[in-house]
Amino acid sequence: MYLYHFGMRELPFSLTPNTNFYFGLPSHNEAMQVLMTALKTGEGFIKVTGEVGTGKTLLCRKLLNEMPDAFEVAYLPNPCLSPEEIRYAFASELGIKGLTRINQQQLSQKIQLKLVELNQQGKGVVLVIDEAQTIPWESFEALRLFTNLETESRKLVQVVLFGQPELDEMLASERLRQLRQRITFSYKLRSLNIDEMNAYVKHRMVMAGYQGANVFTPNALKAVFKYSTGVPRLANIICHKALMLTYGEGDHSVDKKHIVAAANDTDGVIKSSRRNVWLLVFSVLLSCIAAVAIWQAPYLQGAN
Ligand SMILES: Nc1ncnc2c1ncn2[C@@H]1O[C@H](COP(=O)(O)OP(=O)(O)O)[C@@H](O)[C@H]1O
Ligand SMILES: [Mg+2]
Hints:
The protein is an alpha/beta fold. The protein has two domains: about 5-20 and about 190-265, Helicase, Ruva Protein, domain 3, CATH 1.10.8; about 25-190, P-loop containing nucleotide triphosphate hydrolases (Rossmann fold). It contains 13 helices and five strands. The protein has helices spanning about 5, 25-40, 55-65, 85-95, 105-120, 135-145, 165-170, 175-180, 195-205, 220-230, 230-250, 255-265, 275-304, and strands at about 45-50, 70-75, 125-130, 155-165, 185-190. A five-stranded parallel sheet has the order 2-3-4-1-5, sandwiched between helices. The termini are far apart. Magnesium ion (MG) binds near residues 56, 57 and 130.
């Protein structure tokens, strides 16, 4: 691979959300602040949404790493679970023993006892859920019921939901109106702007051990931004492929042509500006046809 060629210890653009590579982008730092503040207030639900690849899982892991000692954490990375399964998963994350051969009522009692016990030890419980858009409708109710448990001053359980924009669509539905009202803090991750993207790419190179001058030329960086549309995961895929191509050519500098070739080889990337031009021509044509149709309508009616 290209590690030795560029003098790096690790792959700089691996897709694993590794918190060692965390770069304090404004949007991500703000999200962390919102999360920490929200946890301190002790309210029910907290929500972080963002498009695919914008860094939700990475933030989720960072939150788990940095969770203050006053909280006991339960983590559900794959919450596509029935209400019963959600209760079991939550109980097992809390370290509750004796979960076999008990019914749902006994399970709920065990959870409640554990929450009270933790509360007496001065600990709040945070249930952190990634991919929350995959939670089945009926399971949201199980989550809401957890947050019903409270002392006079605070909830015994707080739930942090990380999810794609579909989560917002689900929450807008009448079925989830009760839960929606419990969301006291929310944050929407945005994609990176061009300056942030440039800094992001450089940061990942440095974290991987690269020490030389800029590997990516200014035109290459512009192209990374354009093809990734500011989405970190797409940028990672493109940069990784571009580094491989550059290495394959025995070169030491990644140029625009490497990025374009990498982007053309990547799913989910708008391939070339020519496609955009055709889309524009097509939509202008459609608008013209619509305008002519509207303009002709009264004459046609008159003719009838
Ligand atoms: N602030 C950041 N610093 C470093 N890497 C990031 C950052 N945000 C996103 N990434 C990287 O982008 C990729 C996609 O992030 P991920 O958390 O998997 O996105 P999501 O869960 O929203 O689909 C991962 O490789 C992740 O490490
Ligand atoms: Mg994710």
